[in-house]
Amino acid sequence: MRGGQRMRFGLTPKKQWRIDMTEQLDLLHKITTRVAKVGVVGMGYVGLPFALEAAQAGFQVVGIERDQRRVDQLNRGENYIDDIRDEDLHAVVRAGKFTVQADFEKAEDLDVIVIAVPTPLTRHLTPDLQYIVEVTKSLSGHLRPGQLISLESTTYPGTTEEVMLPLLEKRGLKAEKDFFLAHSPERVDPGNKRWKTKNTTKVVGGVGPNSLEVAKLFYEQIVEGVVPVTSAKAAELVKVFENTFRAVNIALVNEMALLCDRMGLNVWEVLDAAFTKPFGIMPFYPGPGVGGHCIPLDPHYLEWKAREYNFFTHFITLAGEVNRKMPEFVREKAYRLLNRVGKAPSRSKILLLGLAYKGDISDWRESPALEVARLLMQDKVEVHYHDPYIPDARAAGLDLHSEPLTEDLLRRMDLVIITTAHKVIDYGFVVAHARWVLDTRNATKDLNGDNVIVL
Question: Can 294 be counted among the known catalytic residues?
Answer without folding.
Answer: yes
